[in-house]
Amino acid sequence: MLEKNFQPQLVEQKLYEMWEKAGLFKADVNSSKPNYTIMMPPPNVTGSLHMGHALDYTLQDILIRFHRMKGFNVLWQPGVDHAGIATQMVVERNLAKEGLTRKGLGREKFLEKVWAWKEESGNTIVSQQRRLGIACDWSRHRFTMDEGLSLAVKEVFVNLFKDGLIYRDKRLVI
User: In degrees to the nearest 10, what's the CA dihedral of 142, 83, 89, 172?
Assistant: First the structure.
């Protein structure tokens, strides 16, 4: 018997979990199919998602699903960004509500608060993304401060510097 009022969140969650378990969002590193990849511009861990994120994810999701249906080996890699200074400001505002300050806590305790906020906000964001039903490969979820990503950025920066594409000078960059 059908419910009087349809509750999409009950159906959507079950379907999404089924799709994930079936591996429908995963790219195959050994595939001979042509590759199609979108690196999700990572949202900042400064709060929760807004309508602009929903629009952006919808457009990316359309492209991802279209290419998957066309037979491509598709990777949509999700992640979140640390947003250093912005995240620090959010954490400091939260501390102020408790009558605390960054300097009063000391470096180690403050960093603990920042990482706790990252965990809370990052989990909220991922939960919101999953609720939207986006088809990204959650097994490859990254955080911009992950060791592997930080090492990759350093390696690329050093290579660009060695190739003369990054240099120090005294002039405006426009």
Answer: 170
Burial of 128 (0-12, 13-18, 19+ CB in 10 A): middle
Place of tokens 């990204």: 136
Q: The pTM is what?
A: 0.77
Q: Say if CB 80 and CB 43 are below 8 A apart.
A: yes
Kindly report the average pLDDT of the chain as a whole number: 90
Q: Give the number of other CB atoms < 10 A from CB of residue 3.
A: 7
Residue 45's φ and ψ, nearest 5 degrees, are: -85, 45
Q: In the predicted model, is pLDDT for residue 174 greater than 80?
A: no
Confidence of residue 18 (pLDDT cuts 50, 70, 90): very high
